[in-house]
Amino acid sequence: MPLFNSKKVHARKPITFATAALLTPEDIFNPENSIIKMKLTDQELHFKNGIWTPETEALGEKYRETEQLREYCEAVEEENNLLKMRLEVLLDMITETTLQKNSMTQELIALRSDVKNSIKPRKP
Which superkingdom does the taxonomy of this entry point to (predicted)? Predict the structure, then answer.
């Protein structure tokens, strides 16, 4: 009993592209033909705008709900970022106002001491 089979393997039949030859340029560039469709068991998916979207009702509803929640989450994150920026601006304004108050207080103390030093009591 030989270890390797000595039978000759027949050459494979070349693949024909008959369906591609039948397509016209209008068929190739038709937007409806550019959508990639895939069916796995009972699920049908379409590739649109770089995203796989389910076309069956049960999955489609969950997908739409997920997309709505994702959009809501993005909107809340944007609002949160805006509120953080406002908080930073308000803190900067409070810091600036506090610095101005402190400098004015020091200036007032200096002026009061100058006034006290310049007004000397008269000796009778």
Answer: Eukaryota
